[in-house]
Prior knowledge:
about 180 residues; mainly beta; Immunoglobulin-like; five-stranded mixed beta sheet; four-stranded antiparallel beta sheet; 13 strands; about 0% helix
Amino acid sequence: MSAPAITVSPATAASSGPPTVLARKVLVQPERIEMQLPVGYTTGTLVFTLFSDVNTEVVVRPLDSRLKFRGAGNNLLRLNAYTLQTANFVVLEAHRGVIELLNTRGEVIEKVRYTVVPHKAVNQSANLSYNPFSGQVSAGYSVSTVPASSLAPNISAGVGMGYDIQKGQLGGSVYLNVRW
């Protein structure tokens, strides 16, 4: 006695879920797609969400080879009505670019502009203050390193100036700070 043959095939985006309609528009969130690579990294993950009020499918097409879609090999993304769908990409290096979203007819329905910047080497800070009770005005500027790891020390330096309006005196300060 032999069992009947059974054919098993993987589900595809087009065959799973309720029927779809042709996409005319999709909402991309957030409005500005920006990321900064983490300290010590040359690659990263760029993520945003897509939203549609109908069941549809879109093709995700990055126009820059330094951005790779982390989805199906055909770059097809299914959007279920009234459900946020995440679009996930691997960034190979810092750059600016455009991702085109196409409907299943190949028509561009949205262009997503994005920016990926390298990690910062330094942080900067500036301040300006006025104390009406003492009549003093002051301004300052500081710069500090961004540690390459949680074990690395952080060094900061700054300058400040103050002026006492009532006495007509000018003062200043300089500092250096090391944290570990």
